[in-house]
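Hi! If you just cloned this repository, the fastest way to understand the data is to look at a raw example. We've pasted two of them here, unedited. The first protein comes first, obviously.
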Amino acid sequence: MLADPTRFRMLWLLCGAEYDVTTLAAEVGIARPAVSQHLAKLRLTGLVTVRREGRRALHEARGGHVRRLLFEAVNAADHHLTGKPDHD
């Protein structure tokens, strides 16, 4: 799920706040139908939750595990690109 750069970026944004499809599409710079399809995949795998607020559906990353997963992935890439040694 995270190999796709668009889904990774969407999930990164969803770790910091709730978004509806329209706002997330504007942030990521892709069409709303594409955002909806990506969100459906992220929900299916349990990485994203959705809650209703009236007619709006607000999406956000599912808890601390997902946030830590993304943080570690970004840190691992940073270490690789900058030549920093790995650590535990």
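Ok, and the second one:
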Amino acid sequence: MDILGTSLRVCVGDLNAAIDVYERLTGAEAIRFQRGGVAVAAVGCFFLMSGPEAELSVLRKIAATIAVKDVDDALADLTAVGADIIAGPLPTPIGRNLVARHPDGSVFEYVDRNQGGEA
């Protein structure tokens, strides 16, 4: 699998205030989107997330989001090393994703920007 980068997940109480801080720190402009009841802002290498605690508690279990060239390749490699695929692959607004638990217990989201995502 080709890993292109990693994004850190940060749960925040006030998304607008956090965006101001992270835009200043990274020099990047926030890209906002909604995932279920959670408002998300991608700022540089950070995913800022704010919403209902029930949804955030699930998202906190995922250590990081890993950008890959192709989720299908990631799926094959993860399966080969004995990872447990928790969810996906599923289409998202920007590509596809899957969530996997590595054999050591760590949980990661893998995402690509391949076609097949929802428009």
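That's it. A detail worth noticing about the second one: Residues 23 and 29 are 6 Å apart (CA to CA).
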